[in-house]
Design a protein that fits this description.
Alpha-Beta Plaits, two-stranded antiparallel sheet, eight-stranded mixed β-barrel, 363 residues, 13 helices, globular, TIM Barrel
Length: 363
């Protein structure tokens, strides 16, 4: 991999051995998270935002010049969106009026035809190495472009006002997954769903969620809603009331991407939150980065004192796992164990984990 400054405030990164658009999107979003971390300059805390465009060989260009031009076009499109944004170049879907209209039409069609599906990233108990939960992650099974990550379409869904409809589809899929897990003798596994502000502020949210859970027959105590700090900060009082109503159904809550927003610690004691999720940007350079070590250790200790479960996201190396285990972090997610996978692949994953645990016992 290579990194270079092109001039002014433009930089280029060349990545090798990238196997899919999902990999590219995940890398781009990791870069955005790292760049946007607050820093201290002359006793003042500052933060920066970045606009990132990506082009992938051979889909987005067959020579170096085309790839650079198309990546720059994607970056220019990203600059039109307030805040940091990652966009991958696409000839058809993103970069002119016709393309934007096409994307909007295709997204409406995707909602009608239920083209959205969920992949599930395993959440692993560090003490026993066992699967204890899943995070449901949205994918668009595009009829021509294949499986697309949220970074390639979610902002447009938000602009079009589709997030509530898609969000309810996601909850339906998650409840169906809970039923499937119970039939596979894996009924002890929780399924977590990301909830955005436009969903939870919907006046019918409680009623619709209650209906979805009732019709599916799923165990609501195995359903977890993940909210970010930024979502809660938009309307703390109303969201607290809605969370308490949902908790009466048995649904639990976790605070996602903890530490990346303007944390108000009062939320941790006032809201019915049972778990904290350490954002991947604080895990990435463990255990070599003393600042990340300090942040992770602090969050883990605070969660324990508050009686909350703590999960570290983005764990990719053995060294990270060992550090987190030593700090008594209960659970982890990340590529060290598995990326997000289709539900049907879960039994094979569980079997593989059992085999690895037996190997470690006898090694």
């Amino acid at each position: 991999d290579s990194f270079a400054r092109l001039g002014g405030d433009e930089f280029a990164v060349v990545l090798e051995d990238v196997s899919s658009s999902i990999d590219v999107t995940q890398i781009g979003e990791k870069m955005l998270a790292a760049i946007s971390m607050p820093m201290t300059l002359s006793d003042h805390q500052v933060s920066v935002e970045a606009s990132i465009g990506a082009a992938v060989f051979p889909d987005d260009g067959r020579d170096f010049s085309d790839l650079v031009d198309n990546a720059r076009s994607a970056m220019q499109q990203a600059k039109t969106v307030p805040g940091g944004k990652f966009i991958r170049y696409s000839d058809r879907l993103l970069f002119d009026v016709a393309g934007s209209n096409s994307l909007a039409a295709e997204l409406r069609n995707a909602v009608r035809k239920n083209q959205f599906e969920l992949h599930y990233q395993p959440r692993i108990d560090l003490n026993h190495g066992q699967l204890v939960g899943l995070e449901a992650l949205l994918r668009w099974n595009h009829p021509e472009r294949g499986l697309l990550c949220p970074g390639e379409f979610l902002s447009t869904c938000e602009e079009m006002g589709l997030m509530r409809t898609i969000g309810y589809q996601v909850i339906q899929h998650a409840c169906s997954a809970l039923i499937w897990l119970a039939k596979q003798n894996m009924g002890h596994i929780d399924v977590a769903v990301n909830i955005c502000f436009s969903q939870i502020q919907d006046s019918r949210f409680l009623e619709i969620v209650k209906d979805i859970v009732s019709r599916s027959g799923a165990d609501a105590s195995r359903l977890e809603f993940e909210l970010t700090e930024s979502t809660i900060l938009k309307s703390p009082g109303a969201i607290k009331e809605r969370m308490n109503e949902l908790r009466h159904l048995g649904i639990s809550f976790s605070l996602d991407d903890f530490g990346t927003g303007f944390s108000q610690l009062s939320h941790l004691t006032e809201l019915p939150i049972s778990a904290l999720k350490i954002d991947a940007c604080f895990v990435r350079d463990l255990p070599r980065n003393p600042h990340q070590e300090a942040v992770c250790t602090m969050i883990i200790e605070m969660a324990h004192r508050l009686g909350m479960r703590v999960t570290a996201e983005g764990a990719e190396t053995h060294e990270q796992i060992e550090f987190l285990r030593a700090q008594n972090c209960q659970q982890v997610q990340g590529f060290y164990y598995s990326p997000a996978i289709p539900l049907q692949q879960l039994p094979a994953f569980v079997q593989e984990q059992r085999f690895k645990r037996r190997e470690r016992m006898f090694s």
